[in-house]
TrEMBL record:
Keyword annotations from UniProtKB, A to Z: Glycoprotein, Kinase, Leucine-rich repeat, Membrane, Receptor, Repeat, Signal, Transferase, Transmembrane, Transmembrane helix
InterPro entries tied to this protein: Leu-rich_rpt, LRR_dom_sf, RLP_Defense
PANTHER family given in the database record: OS01G0750400 PROTEIN, RECEPTOR-LIKE PROTEIN KINASE 2
Subcellular locations according to the entry: Membrane
Keyword Membrane: yes
Superkingdom to which the source organism belongs: Eukaryota
The protein's name in its UniProt record: Brassinosteroid LRR receptor kinase
One Gene Ontology MF term: kinase activity
Topology class, membrane: Single-pass type I membrane protein
Organism (species): Noccaea caerulescens (Alpine penny-cress)
Length: 89
């Protein structure tokens, strides 16, 4: 949990190398850029993904709907565009 640390820049694509992660909470920072490709498809144990209150943009990848273990998804207060992937919800 790395909430409110004032982090800037993009979410590193290498975050998906940590395949055992169960929670990613990077809320209330100043992160920008798009959603890292392949993040959710590689993190099969991910239960919590909270990227709220940042400056992230672009589309939410369809692969997020394939995250069968995901219990909490919070992408609020960003600049994402497009539709929510059909597998979410």
């Amino acid at each position: 949990v790395l909430t409110g640390n004032g982090f800037h820049g993009s979410i590193p694509g290498r975050i998906s190398d940590f395949v055992s992660l169960e929670e990613i909470t990077l809320s209330r920072n100043s992160l920008s850029g798009g959603f890292p490709a392949n993040t959710t498809s590689r993190l099969r144990n991910l239960k919590v993904l909270d990227l709220s209150h940042n400056f992230l943009d672009g589309n939410v990848p369809d692969s997020i709907g394939d995250s069968t273990e995901l219990l909490k998804l919070d992408l609020s207060f960003n600049d994402f565009s497009g539709e929510i992937p059909s597998g979410v919800g």
